[in-house]
Design goal:
The protein folds into two domains: 37 residues, no CATH class; 97 residues, 2-Layer Sandwich (Nucleotidyltransferase, domain 5). The protein is 32% helix and 20% strand. It is built from four helices and nine strands, in the order E-E-H-E-E-E-E-H-E-H-E-E-H. The longest helix has 21 residues. It is a single-pass membrane protein; Single-pass type II membrane protein. One of its GO terms (molecular function) is transmembrane transporter activity.
């Protein structure tokens, strides 16, 4: 126990109670075991790199289709079953009157034919414009064609 007193000897023996410490540590261990995997979930794709990319900040209504290197689809960073992509895209874009744009972000190691397959599926289900996302090549500066020519 925490403390024990011996009546016959007259001395008091103090021992630390480690049970609350162990309980707290076990609870923290369980919390971290549950929380850490959910923090790293989502789309893990390394997109191809390009030069002279025009900056495009994400807006609230933008729809993003991610494809990881295994060919798994992610709609707005949430994993979905590959078979349901067409139905989910149709449901989203049938409700829209304007702005039927979808951005695709695929891993650079993925076969390009799989990116084209996804483009075909979304095009047949209500998406009018497909944009492909890539990352700026390190050490280069993004510049649009108009900026190069000195135009407006």
């Amino acid at each position: 126990m925490g403390m024990s007193a011996q009546v016959s000897g007259g001395s008091v023996k103090a021992e630390p109670n480690v049970t609350p410490l162990v309980d707290v540590m076990l609870v923290l261990l369980i919390i971290f075991m549950v929380i850490i995997p959910t923090l790293t979930s989502g789309l893990n794709a390394e997109p191809p790199q390009g030069v002279n990319l025009k900056k495009h900040p994400e807006e609230d209504g933008d729809q993003l289709l991610g494809i990881d290197r295994n060919g798994q689809y992610y709609l707005n960073r949430n994993p979905i079953r590959n078979e349901t992509l067409g139905a989910q895209i149709k449901q989203i874009y049938d409700a829209r009157e304007v702005d039927k744009i979808l951005y695709i972000r695929a891993d650079r190691q993925l076969e390009y034919s799989k990116v084209l397959d996804a483009s075909d599926i979304v095009s047949k289900n209500g998406v009018r414009v497909v944009g492909y996302i890539s990352e700026q090549t390190p050490g280069t500066e993004g510049q649009s064609i108009d900026e190069k020519k000195g135009g407006n």
